[in-house]
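Students often ask why inverse folding is considered easier than folding. One informal answer: many sequences map to the same fold, so there is more than one right answer. In these notes we will look at a single instance of the problem. The structure comes first.
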């Protein structure tokens, strides 16, 4: 195989990575069926794609599917701690996919890799968190002060028409995360979103399952791998009761934790209460919790005043996409000492009163920082929706408004039906009489 460009930790890890990719594929039958069709039909032929995603074994199978469909794909990491180095090595060596991702990469490397994705001049982009699209928009708007220095060095060499072509040539961008969709809708509201975006995160086959069951299981997995602690009997505080929060709270309770939920939304707070969880403000929960998990997608959910009243030995982590939910600068400021790496993925902070607080995974997304992310079976649906939404956006290039679009209903339903088939589950269909009844209005009681 010809040498493929990229930047990974160690190509000698490829053998282990390939095994992991192939193991994940066994539990991704929907995506496998799509890959077989893509290989035959080549719906993405001649299209350059740049994907800024968590580089995991499951993502690798999405990448293989896109390449099978004819895409000229380049992959970079969407989080400095979420890369599986052996998978990245295999993508380059075994599958010929340029990959720029190293677990633990510093900020400059992270943005140098995003620059590689931009230089690829994509016709379609994919994001976990909207960092790639945000960089494109800042460049097109000539807001160079808002662009990281590594990106700016390259962007400043471009002529004005070359900057505009960064988005003008893009059929659409796929966004996989709640955090990213929030950012993109804010761009749309401010009138700066210069390309169509498909909110793959909002597909029912994504957030009902990936966010709830995937995040729920993998977050608890990350906590246990990082700490080797018993969940049963602990007071677990889950900040946020969206789909991810629902999953985390449910899984923590299932392992015997006494779960407390904090929320700002009265509807979600009411739902959490009626689901049987204690609900209280974070200021109160901070005094009694043993384990804190943020899943809000917002900034500084746990701050200095909350850290200051936490119990000795409290463990704190984040399962939102960006490392902004924990105000770690606040924690550092009120601590008398910090000790990095008391255990892999665990940092100790000692407060003035002697209480020790433990931050897991540097406050980054814990299920990928300390564990392997979502199980393949749930990512099968999310990535199937990604692949099909990509195909749909290419077919509709030039016809989509510059706004955030929902995944077409037919894509969602196709993924769900195929998933049921692979699980050996059959469902009912409407009779002719039932179908007529649902489409009419004349018949009453």
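Output (designed amino acids):
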């Amino acid at each position: 195989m010809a040498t493929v460009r990229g930047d990974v930790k160690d190509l000698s890890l490829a053998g282990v990575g390939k095994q992991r990719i192939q193991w994940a594929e066994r539990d991704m039958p929907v995506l496998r069926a799509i890959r077989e069709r893509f290989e035959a039909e080549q719906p993405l032929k001649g299209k350059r794609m740049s994907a800024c995603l968590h580089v995991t074994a499951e993502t690798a199978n999405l990448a293989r599917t896109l390449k099978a469909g004819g895409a000229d794909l380049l992959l970079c990491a969407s989080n400095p701690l979420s890369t599986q180095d052996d998978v990245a090595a295999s993508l380059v060596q075994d599958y010929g996919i340029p990959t720029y991702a190293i677990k633990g990469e510093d900020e400059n490397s992270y943005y140098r890799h995003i620059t590689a994705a931009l230089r690829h001049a994509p016709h379609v982009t994919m994001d976990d968190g909207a960092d790639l699209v945000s960089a494109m928009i800042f460049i097109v708007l000539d807001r160079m002060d808002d662009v990281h220095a590594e990106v700016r060095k390259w962007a400043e060499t471009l002529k004005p028409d070359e900057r505009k072509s960064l988005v003008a040539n893009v059929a659409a961008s796929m966004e996989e995360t709640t955090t990213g969709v929030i950012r993109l809708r804010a761009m749309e509201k401010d009138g700066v979103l210069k390309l169509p975006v498909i909110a793959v995160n909002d597909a029912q086959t994504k957030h009902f399952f990936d966010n709830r069951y995937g995040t729920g299981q993998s977050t608890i997995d990350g906590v246990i791998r990082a700490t080797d602690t018993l969940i049963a009997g602990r007071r677990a505080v889950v900040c946020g009761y969206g789909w991810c929060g629902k999953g985390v709270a449910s899984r923590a309770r299932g392992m015997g934790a006494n779960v407390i939920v904090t929320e700002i939304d009265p509807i979600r707070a009411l739902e959490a209460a009626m689901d049987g969880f204690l609900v209280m403000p974070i200021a109160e929960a901070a005094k009694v919790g043993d384990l804190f998990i943020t899943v809000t997608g917002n900034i500084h959910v746990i701050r200095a005043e909350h850290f200051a009243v936490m119990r000795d030995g409290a463990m704190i982590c984040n399962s939102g996409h960006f490392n902004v939910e924990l105000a770690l600068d606040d924690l550092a400021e009120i601590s008398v000492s910090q000790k990095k790496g008391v255990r892999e993925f665990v940092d100790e902070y000692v407060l003035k009163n002697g209480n020790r607080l433990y931050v897991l995974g540097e406050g980054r997304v814990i299920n990928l920082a300390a564990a392997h992310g979502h199980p393949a079976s749930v990512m099968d649906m999310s990535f199937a929706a990604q692949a099909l939404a990509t195909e749909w956006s290419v077919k509709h290039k030039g016809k989509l408004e510059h706004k955030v679009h929902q995944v077409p209903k037919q894509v969602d339903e196709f993924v769900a039906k195929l998933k049921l088939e692979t699980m050996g589950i059959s469902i009912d269909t409407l009779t002719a009489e039932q179908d007529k009844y649902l489409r009419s209005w004349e018949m009453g009681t």
